[in-house]
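INTERNAL AUDIT FORM
Audit reference: QA-55
Scope: verify that the stored structure record matches its stored sequence.
Auditor: D.O.
Record contents follow.
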Amino acid sequence: MDFTLLVAAFGGGLLATMIGGLNSFIFCGLTVLAAILGGKAGAPAIGLMSFGPMFGPHVAFAGAVAGAAFAMTRNHIENGSDIVTPLVKFGDPMVLIVGGIFGMIGFLLQYIVSALLGPMLFTGILGAGAMGWTDTVALAVLLSAIIVRLVFGKTGLTGKTPAGEERVWVATGQRLGFVVTIGLGIGVLMGGMVVALGTLGLVDKSADALYLYQMMPIIAFAIAAISLIFIDMGYAFEAWHHIGYPAASTAVIIFTATLSPVAAIIGAIITGIFTTFFGDWVLKTFNSHADTHIDPPATTIFVMQTINLLILGGIIFVV
């Protein structure tokens, strides 16, 4: 573990708490996209800035989630699930310090589940790639949020439903149709883009297309993260990085192994629909009537990328 980066993670969590968790995540997307389009020159920025101490969600976003929960305990905000408000407005150094501390906690959690847990449990399946058994950044975001809920929250892990109010756990009716439609559409889009780039890269041997093909899941993640700026602008909007990123990952794994456009697109559609429905279930289960934020997209990404990387890519299609 790089202790310099661990120390830097304190600053990353503090900065994200200053500007707000959602805003730090948008910067994550911006730096990812810029780094990918920068090719070899931008490659170091992905690990150090986008997914490292600066804007890595396990450091920055997770730190801001903790800062918001702590700000609630000091009566600065009504609900600690507020990931939009830049907490610098309250001028409370302890809020920033808590954000910084949880930035370091997130950095440590990601190291534990990747560098330590991965090789210990999954070397037999993934070999040298065991550290990448899942999206360990997303898992660290989830674990950090659970710690925050237990330390600072008062509503329990699944929230407290007001007396007399019926709890809704899954999407039904029009909402279910809406969820399926989003997953279907994004799945088709991701599958189609992966197949098009994969054909140019793997079949026609275009090096530039091959690079974009391999990076398509992260490109989808970045664009989706940037699009969350619509929430800052006051528009009703829903996150979709937990849909596009895993759907593109599924398509890349299947197309690399089979070169079948039909199989890749169908796989992306199935993943798109599943992740949309599962993310909606996580939202209703952990963030309804709750006073801190447990991130539905991060939870969904962790679950689906475990399926993609460990099962689909490690057992079914060895790529």
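Auditor finding: record pair retrieved intact. The chain has a mean pLDDT of 95.
Action required: none
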